[in-house]
Write a structure and sequence with these properties.
single chain, 3 helices, 71% helix, 0% strand, rod-shaped
């Protein structure tokens, strides 16, 4: 008795759509999900949030425009935010 592709009792067999078509699609979908998860985790752990830096810089510019901080203090804080 041959096992493997021709055995419908112990596996999906050659005649099942899951064994030929659905299995390949599911493998591609799972790999895409794994890659997307890895990319998301790497971006989340990167620590660089350009939106947060631009928001802080906007607040700093506003404080300088209102006269709350001096030009030297503005330049010093700006240097810290940009680097």
């Amino acid at each position: 008795m041959m096992y493997g592709l021709y055995n419908d009792y112990y596996g999906w067999g050659a005649g099942s759509p899951i064994g030929w078509f659905g299995g390949g699609i599911m493998m591609v979908v799972m790999m895409a999900l794994m890659i997307a998860l890895i990319v998301w985790v790497v971006r989340a752990l990167d620590g660089k949030h350009p939106h947060a830096n631009s928001h802080a810089l906007d607040i700093l510019r506003e404080r300088y425009a209102k006269g709350e901080i001096s030009k030297e203090e503005f330049e010093s804080k700006k240097k810290n935010l940009v680097s």
